[in-house]
C-alpha cells in the first residue's frame, strides 16, 4: 500500500504560478510511475504529467511548455511546477502513483483555481 499527501493548491491570478507537491509513504520502493491528473466536475479525470522511475516524462499537450514535473526518488516525492496558469487550468489536481503488481494509488486531491 502507498499513501499520498498533496499540498500546494490554491487561488492564483491568470499568468501566475503554483507548485504542487506530493509525498508518498508506505511501499515506496516499488513505485514506478508518479504523476498528476486533474478533473473538472462532470468531466473525466485527465493526465497532466507523469514521470517514470528512470526519469522519462509524459506531459499533456495542453500544459506543455508551462508545467514541469520532477521527482525525488530518495524522498518519494513528485512536484508539479505550474507557470503561466490559465483559467482553463482550474481543476482538482490528484497525485497518482503506479506500483507494478498493486496498481494505482491516488491522493485526496487539491484544488487549483485560476481567476482574476
**Structural class by SSE content:** mainly beta
The portion of residues assigned to helices is under 10%
- Contiguous low-pLDDT stretches (5 residues minimum) are none
Please report the distance between the alpha carbons of the first and last residues.
40 Å
Strand content range: over 45%
User: Nearest-angstrom radius of gyration?
Assistant: 13 Å
Largest sheet: 7 strands, mixed
> What is the arithmetic mean of pLDDT?
96
Shape: globular
Order of helices and strands: EEEEEEEEEEE
- Total strands: the figure is 11
* Count of DSSP H/I helices: 0
What does this structure look like?
- By secondary structure, the protein is mainly β.
- It has no helices and 11 strands.
- Strands 2, 4, 5, 6, 9, 10 and 11 form a 7-stranded mixed beta sheet that branches. It has a 4-stranded antiparallel beta sheet with strand order 1-3-8-7, with no helix packed on it.
- The termini are far apart.
Q: How are the secondary structure elements laid out?
A:
Layout: E1 2-7, E2 10-12, E3 18-26, E4 33-39, E5 46-51, E6 57-59, E7 67-72, E8 77-82, E9 91-99, E10 103-106, E11 110-114
Parallel strand pairs: 2-11
Antiparallel strand pairs: 1-3, 3-8, 4-5, 4-9, 5-6, 7-8, 9-10, 9-11
